[in-house]
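Build the 3D complex.
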Amino acid sequence: MTISPIRYIIILRSAMDEDLAADVYGRQLGLEIAELLDPDLVICGLKAQDAEKVIRYLGSLLYERGLVRDTFVEATLAREKEMPTGLPIGEINAAIPHADIEHVVEPALAVATLNEPVSFQVMVDPDESVKVSIVFLLALNKPHDQIEMLQKVAMILQDSTLLQALMGAKSSREMLEILSKWTPA
Amino acid sequence: MEKVKMVLVACGTAIATSTVVARAIEEEMAARGIKVKTRQCKAAEVPSLAPNADLIVTTTPVPLDLGVPVIKTLAFLTGVGKEQVVQQIFDILRKE
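Done.
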């Protein structure tokens, strides 16, 4: 049985000292995220001129590994045009492009920090754009089973210290190390 | 017995963002003593499902004139303004 991260920490906090709970939980969450990520799907400082190029590149990584169908990239691009995924956060903004489940073979996540910020349209206001520095390309085929993955992505987005650290990384390996050592704030 | 509140959670495809948002709303409201049932849907489905909802929370544009309060927010994804939005949701749902 899987427990949502929020419920897990509520249970831990009631059972033990809050700092200890956060530490135990944090280490577990950090390790889980690092395990979730295939090192070949973590890209540091990707050079791409626009959102389309980012999505094409990350999508091709998933396709080469048999994780998505050949329709995935075009479907993700089409979806991004109609229902964009740009997320204004603050200094570092993110995007979470994805496609419908029929284009996905196995659930996966590719993440890239960008060499230079690239414009994505804003999810909640498609006429607005935001300069994005980190992109999570999501391949989901059973959303309710993948809530954990999604919640972890959301938790990363909500931790500005972590985002700064990831942007400062000089290599994919460093990004993975940062994620595996991460303790949620 | 308390009434269970129905919250319609909309996003573009009803896959990714609505899943995170729905779960977060259920847990935040449970922590505040409000029983909430969420239903995820695509933006296009909102008008037909709105009559059964006490509140609509969406990450994507939806029609606003549905007779049901609509909160358009990314706060459950980005954390920006999350406390305010949770308070807003609480204030709407605790009314009978």
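Chain B has one domain: 5-93.
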